[in-house]
């Protein structure tokens, strides 16, 4: 399925507010609610739309720190780490990357002591580098059509 301008308009609507009704999206893009529903269903079936989720503010639920932690895995420790990282509640995003490091994680932590104990769990797998997030510059920027 190639994405036409109408599909991109629907995706723009959903990326800005996935809770709006198909009727509201239809009004914004100029088609009927059933037509919107059909197009959304096709994009879901093809994996273009992968899921819908709620974003929770870590700070409003008690976390004081958000950090980016990179790991340069020790020889033979990358695969064990890839399994272990799935068990860490602190990790909200984790990427395997190219370059000097193997992994970059976005984590939320209660405080500096929590950061210290979390890093202590990581250092058996490799060298770590930590950057504390001060603020978001761009947050959940929508995916746009290729130019």
Key words describing this protein structure:
147 residues, alpha+beta, Arc Repressor Mutant, subunit A, Alpha-Beta Plaits, 2 domains, four-stranded antiparallel beta sheet, 5 helices, sequence-specific DNA binding
Would you give an account of this structure?
It contains 5 helices and 4 strands. It is elongated and about 55 Å long. The chain has 147 residues and is of the alpha+beta class. It starts with a helix and ends in a 15-residue tail after the last strand. Helix 1 (5-16) packs across helix 2 and helix 2 (22-29) packs across helix 3. It has helices at residues 5-16, 22-29, 33-45, 78-84, 112-122; strands at residues 65-73, 91-96, 103-109, 126-132. A 4-stranded antiparallel beta sheet has the order 2-3-1-4. It folds into 2 domains: 5-46, Arc Repressor Mutant, subunit A (Orthogonal Bundle), CATH 1.10.10.10; 58-132, Lrp/AsnC effector binding domain/regulation of amino acid metabolism (RAM) domain (Alpha-Beta Plaits, 2-Layer Sandwich). 35% of the residues lie in helices and 20% in strands.
């Amino acid at each position: 399925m190639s994405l036409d301008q109408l599909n991109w308009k629907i995706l723009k609507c959903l990326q800005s507010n996935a809770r709006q009704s198909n009727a509201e999206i239809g009004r914004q893009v100029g088609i009927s609610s059933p037509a919107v529903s059909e197009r959304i269903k096709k994009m879901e079936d093809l994996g273009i739309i992968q899921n819908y989720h709620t974003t929770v503010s870590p700070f409003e639920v008690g976390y004081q720190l958000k950090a980016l932690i990179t790991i340069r895995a020790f020889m033979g420790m990358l695969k064990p780490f890839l399994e272990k990282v799935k068990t860490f509640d602190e990790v909200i995003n984790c990427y395997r990357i190219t370059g000097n490091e193997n992994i970059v994680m976005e984590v939320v932590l209660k405080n500096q002591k929590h950061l210290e104990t979390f890093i202590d769990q990581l250092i058996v797998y490799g060298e770590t580098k930590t950057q504390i997030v001060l603020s978001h510059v761009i947050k959940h920027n929508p995916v746009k059509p290729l130019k």
